[in-house]
Amino acid sequence: MEEKQQHQGIRRRFTEEFKRDAVQLVRATGRPIAQIAQELGIYDSTLGNWVRQDRIDRGEAEGLTTEERVRLRQLEAENAKLRMERDLLKRTVAFWVKETSTP
Q: Cα torsion for 72, 77, 81, 86, to the nearest 10°?
């Protein structure tokens, strides 16, 4: 139980090469995801997500491809920045109008 508490909040990062190789193991061997995940020391849900995304990227399943996800994140960030700039401009114009209209 202590070991589990020590690992809470720690998010492991995996290289793209590790992910690709893990997915390839599932595809090439046909063994269950849970079995391969246990051998690799990762959660089966993690490996399952990688396999699902690989199927989408290959056109074998419906969903956003990895490239589309990256582009969507970029557009969302740009949209947030533009909203912030727009709101700043609105406040600036409102302040300017208030200052110039007061005698």
A: 30
CB 33 within 8 A of CB 51: yes
Q: Could you give the 3-state DSSP secondary structure of residue 59?
A: coil
Whether 79 is in a domain gets the answer yes
Instruction: Please check whether residue 94 lies inside any domain of the structure.
Output: yes
Is the pTM higher than 0.90? no
- Mark whether 47 and 35 lie in a shared domain: yes
Domain hosting 57: range is: 14-63
Per-residue model confidence (pLDDT) at position 2: 44
3-state helix, strand, coil in the chain (%, to 5): 75, 0, 25
Minimal CA–CA distance to 38: which of 24, 28, 48? 48
